[in-house]
Amino acid sequence: MAAASSMAATYRVGDTAGWSIMGDVDYNEWASSKTFHAGDILRFIYRPDLNNVLQVTSSDYESCTVTAPLATYLTGDDFIPILGDDDHYYFICDEPGHCEFGQKVDIQVAPQVPDVSTPSPPTSTPPPPSKSSASYLLSSSVLVGLVGAAAYLISMQ
């Protein structure tokens, strides 16, 4: 379940099976079918008496051992934001045997695309006036000048 790409989406990890070794979910296959972005939310739903969620390093993820979790979640309904500060987020369940049986997921975050508006093309400059237009403007200016000069001379008498 995901919202439109321009908005943050909330993903239920494992879809309807949730976060459990009982659902026979390949969590990495599940994750690879999604495109995660900074601002999205991961929702882990599980039985807290049987499971947990630990955010771990890449090496802890690969070895299914936890030397120092980056974060620990225990509620059974955890909402974890993807902050975009890393290109991978690794989660495991550290109940005995769970990680080894596949209860782990590598969330790969898509690169952020700068939100830059496409600049509008430069407006074209109008073509120079045609010779007839230029002649008209010149003759109009000369006419106005002559009328002004004549009015000045008449007023001087």
Automatic annotation (TrEMBL):
Pfam families: Cu_bind_like (PF02298)
UniProt keyword annotations, A-Z: Glycoprotein, Membrane, Metal-binding, Transmembrane, Transmembrane helix
MF (Gene Ontology): electron transfer activity; metal ion binding
GO cellular component, one term: plasma membrane
Sequence segments annotated as region (Disordered): 112-132
Domain Phytocyanin: 9-111
Keyword Glycosyltransferase (UniProt): no
Biased composition (Pro residues): 119-130
Membrane spanning stretches: 134-154
Protein's name according to its UniProt entry: Phytocyanin domain-containing protein
The organism of origin for this protein: Papaver somniferum (Opium poppy)
